[in-house]
Amino acid sequence: MQRIALVTGASRRVGAGIARQLHAGGYAIALHCRRSTSEAVALAAAFEDARTGSSSVHVADLAEPAAAATLVTEVIAHWGRLDLLVNNAATFEETPLAAADALAFDRIIDINLRAPYLLARAAAAALRAAGGAIVNLVDVYAERPKVAHAIYCSSKAGLVGLTKALARDLAPAVRVNAVAPGAILWPEQGDAGEQAAVLARIPLARCGSVEDVAGAVCYLAGAHYVTGQVLAVDGGRSIYD
Ligand SMILES: NC(=O)c1ccc[n+]([C@@H]2O[C@H](COP(=O)([O-])OP(=O)(O)OC[C@H]3O[C@@H](n4cnc5c(N)ncnc54)[C@H](OP(=O)(O)O)[C@@H]3O)[C@@H](O)[C@H]2O)c1
Hints:
Elements: E1 4-7, H1 13-24, E2 28-33, H2 37-50, E3 55-59, H3 67-79, E4 84-87, H4 102-130, E5 133-137, H5 150-170, E6 175-181, H6 192-199, H7 210-221, E7 230-233
Helix pairs in contact: 1-7, 3-4, 4-5
The structure holds NADP nicotinamide-adenine-dinucleotide phosphate.
């Protein structure tokens, strides 16, 4: 039986690494993207070269409230089932208190928290039928907030709560877990001084890799007696004093 994984934000960076590792583990991948369509198509082509009929590409702006249900309907229409939902797509934005208003709050919460909720809701019946799983990408900043990023940190703290709540609501058929990465890939407009300060607080004294995060997602996808858990992949950052 071909297992199907929907990975949101799968074109680039961490999402592409998760899609690659799940694909190597035997899943067919429904690659979701918003703007990075050419990267998603190229990744799908690489998957097709490795195994014909093992990928599909789906475009959706998850800030739109109706987009999650449409996306899941499209994926299930294409594949006929769904075994795994990986909520990876997110927006990471600096939001100084004085500057970030209700619109900024709603935009970040809509993408980082409401969309995973609506995707899980839309996928619940198919995941139940498959005995499937959900893995949410959260962040060490959910518990140890980053200055001037209150909305992002709150969105990820909310997603930790959602992970545990859905683990109750969808049990016993569907397991719901989260991976909390630390410093993996710097934001594309990164600041070198700030990066050095982050590294100084990581016991393992280096960034993690996309493969480290993808490995944790793959583990949770197949961990049949684990639900409602958050697995930190952060080089020990979350235990730093
Ligand atoms: N990078 C890290 O070190 C790190 C650390 C801790 C936690 N995380 C978490 O791990 C996950 C992946 O991290 P990342 O750095 O690879 O993420 P990213 O590059 O910031 O974003 C991943 C994807 O999210 C999609 N996205 C953004 N807004 C969207 C919207 N409105 N609708 C649909 N898709 C949207 C984008 O897709 P398109 O490009 O197609 O527009 C983007 O490629 C995120 O949840 C992040 O919060 C990452």
